């Protein structure tokens, strides 16, 4: 027994010693593994840091500008080195800037010389407006990387005014309406609470719908064309549309922004091959010419002024959304009150100047906000180079003449796609505003009345002449006014969904009876 006890104690001691060695080896393995993992993580961080540095170095080697400078609002950047990025913004908005002018010029039967003069002016005021928004003066201008251009918002109303009063009435209304928007910008803090996101969404949606007939008319060959709807026009429109669509589907990143430009080039080449392009305007073309000041005599008609004035209010609402979107995607913050008010005031001032040059009103361009979202390039000096390029282009009449010789069907094929995107943007804004019962009611009634009633303009036949001139053919103005009224008079969402008192009492009685029966 004695030996048995000694042996047991020896075995137990050996087992305890073995267990201790195993635990110690296990702890060593754990420490070694953690050390290796820590080293791997540090190595990965070093590699990632090295990769980022390599990317920055590659970018600096390619463009001469660091990523930090491009993504900073006020970093010092050479004007010449920023030209490639500024040119990218010009290419993204070039067609959309001139298309409204071309559509209105064709609808009003302007001569080739008049149309070319207005197109030149469109380039000039777009460049001046961009510079004003970038750097501003006093409380005018947002001081943000905002690119401005001729707005589609006013196209349908301008065409309707031209048919009744002539283009001079449009020019006069543009000048007066711009001053109205300037005042709206300076007083934005007092009225912006009356325009919630759902009203802005309805405005954008109605703008898209108002342009559908404009795009379809261009697709067929243009208003009053002798060969309207011919197979040549429909073929050209289809070629341009398919080219736009294919480019947008096949390209990636910022290149997608150039789909409309690509469609115009393909359509223009096809039109040349089909003999549909008139080159007579290039015969006596000057190499350089100065944009004309006041090429049209302004006429101040109250109906035209009020009609476009309402659209200036609508445009101010659009600018609120554009400024918020720009600061969110480019600067990762909300806009200040000064930036929002300055953006609206800047659009108003440059729109009045645009009227002096016989052109249409301007606004901030969503295409360029999308470009900022993809590239994160927000440096003001970089965007300034784009504004200067637009100003210089306005002194080259050949650019205006190329666009002036463009067949309407080619433009129609490209603009149909643009107008469809505006409608979808409006639907997206309605979704972001929220599908509450109150918002659904406001959107449904506003769009139905705005679009439906203006399709049957005789419904306004017994209204005063001034009222008919403002609303009979202007679905944007009708939808906006209805949306503002509904937003003001409808109860809040809590009251909107609240159950009637009687039904609530009945519900309480029923629940009490149920409890009594259960007891």
TrEMBL record:
Its main location: membrane. This is Uracil permease. InterPro entries: NCS2 (IPR006043), UacT-like (IPR017588), Xan_ur_permease (IPR006042). PROSITE patterns: XANTH_URACIL_PERMASE. Belongs to the nucleobase:cation symporter-2 (NCS2) (TC 2.A.40) family. Keywords: Cell membrane, Membrane, Transmembrane, Transmembrane helix, Transport. It is a multi-pass membrane protein. The chain crosses the membrane at residues 85-105, 117-137, 144-161, 167-186, 198-219, 231-251, 258-282, 302-321, 382-403, 409-430, 442-463, 469-490. One of its GO terms (molecular function) is xanthine transmembrane transporter activity.
């Amino acid at each position: 027994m004695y030996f048995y006890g000694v042996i047991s104690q020896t075995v137990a001691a050996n087992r305890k010693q073995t267990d201790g060695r195993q635990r110690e080896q296990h702890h060593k393995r754990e420490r070694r593994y953690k050390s290796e993992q820590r080293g791997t993580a540090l190595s990965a961080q070093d590699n990632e840091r090295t990769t980022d540095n390599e990317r920055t170095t590659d970018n600096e080697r390619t463009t001469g500008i660091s990523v930090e400078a491009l993504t900073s609002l006020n970093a010092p950047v050479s004007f010449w080195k920023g030209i490639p990025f500024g040119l990218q913004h010009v290419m993204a908005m070039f067609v959309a800037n001139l298309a409204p002018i071309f559509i209105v010029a064709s609808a009003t039967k302007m001569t080739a010389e008049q149309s070319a003069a207005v197109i030149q002016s469109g380039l000039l005021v777009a460049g001046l407006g961009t510079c004003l928004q970038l750097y501003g003066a006093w409380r005018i201008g947002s001081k943000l990387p905002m690119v401005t251009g001729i707005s589609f918002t006013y196209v349908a109303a301008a065409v309707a005014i031209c048919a009744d009063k002539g283009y001079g009435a449009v020019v006069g209304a543009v000048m007066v309406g711009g001053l109205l928007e300037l005042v709206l910008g300076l007083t934005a803090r007092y009225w912006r609470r009356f325009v919630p996101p759902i009203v802005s969404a309805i405005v954008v949606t109605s703008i898209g719908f108002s342009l559908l007939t404009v795009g379809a008319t261009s697709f067929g060959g243009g208003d009053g064309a002798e060969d309207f709807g011919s197979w040549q026009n429909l073929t050209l429109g289809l070629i341009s549309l398919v080219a736009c669509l294919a480019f947008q589907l096949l390209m990636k990143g910022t290149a997608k922004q150039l789909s409309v430009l690509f469609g115009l080039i393909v359509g223009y080449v096809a039109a040349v091959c089909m003999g549909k392009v008139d080159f007579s305007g290039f015969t006596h073309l000057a190499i350089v010419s100065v944009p004309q000041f006041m090429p049209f005599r302004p006429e101040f008609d109250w109906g035209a002024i009020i009609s476009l004035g309402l659209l200036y209010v609508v445009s101010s609402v659009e600018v609120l959304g554009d400024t918020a979107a720009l600061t969110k995607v480019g600067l990762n913050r909300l806009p200040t009150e000064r930036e929002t008010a300055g953006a609206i005031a800047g659009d108003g001032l440059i729109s009045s100047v645009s009227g002096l040059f016989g052109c249409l009103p301007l606004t901030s361009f969503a295409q360029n906000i999308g470009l900022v979202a993809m590239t994160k390039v927000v440096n003001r000096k970089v965007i300034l180079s784009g504004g200067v390029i637009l100003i210089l282009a306005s002194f080259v009449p050949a650019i205006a003449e190329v666009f002036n010789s463009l067949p309407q069907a080619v433009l129609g094929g490209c603009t149909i796609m643009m107008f469809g995107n505006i409608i979808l943007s409006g639907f997206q804004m309605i979704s972001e505003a929220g599908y509450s019962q109150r918002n659904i009611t406001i959107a449904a009634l506003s769009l139905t009345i705005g679009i439906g009633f203006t399709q049957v303009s005789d419904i306004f036949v017994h209204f005063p002449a001034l009222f008919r001139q403002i609303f009979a053919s202007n679905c944007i103005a009708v939808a906006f006014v209805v949306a503002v009224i509904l937003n003001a008079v409808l109860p809040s969402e809590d009251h909107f969904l609240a159950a009637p008192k009687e039904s609530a009492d009945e519900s309480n009685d029923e629940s009490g009876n149920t409890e009594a029966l259960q007891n």
